[in-house]
Design brief:
Blueprint: E1 4-7, E2 10-13, E3 21-24, E4 33-39, E5 46-51, E6 57-59, E7 67-72, E8 77-82, E9 91-98, E10 108-113
Length: about 110
């Protein structure tokens, strides 16, 4: 079973940038699309970005134009470049396959101050 470990979150001011990463213990190269999800306090976990094994990407409207998802299949790692961060981006960020077939990792906290 693949294990996922997210890192790279932190506290930034509004307008700042972060680049969380997600390292998998096993191969994620095929056939799964991978995604970044986020969960704010008291809210459900939502998918914000995804990338296919071939590199096609899609984004939630709330992050489109600000976030960029990428993957390195050789390193079994998925990244999320987050620019122009807003306080409403504050959440715990997780990665998983699409659908989410792997056990969830611990996530990485992203906090954006106004």
């Amino acid at each position: 079973q693949v294990q996922l470990a997210e890192s790279g979150g932190g506290l930034v001011q509004s307008g700042g940038s972060l680049r969380p990463s997600c390292a998998a213990s096993g191969s994620i190269s095929s056939p799964n699309a991978m995604g970044w999800y986020r969960q704010a306090p008291g809210k459900q976990r939502d998918l914000v970005a995804d990338i296919t094994s071939g590199g096609s990407t899609s984004y939630a409207d709330s992050v489109k134009g600000r976030f960029t998802i990428s993957r390195d299949n050789a390193k079994n790692t998925v990244y999320l470049q987050m620019n122009s961060l807003k306080p409403e981006d504050t959440a715990v960020y997780y990665c998983n396959a699409i659908p989410a077939v792997y056990y969830w990792g611990q996530g990485t906290q992203v906090t954006v101050s106004s």
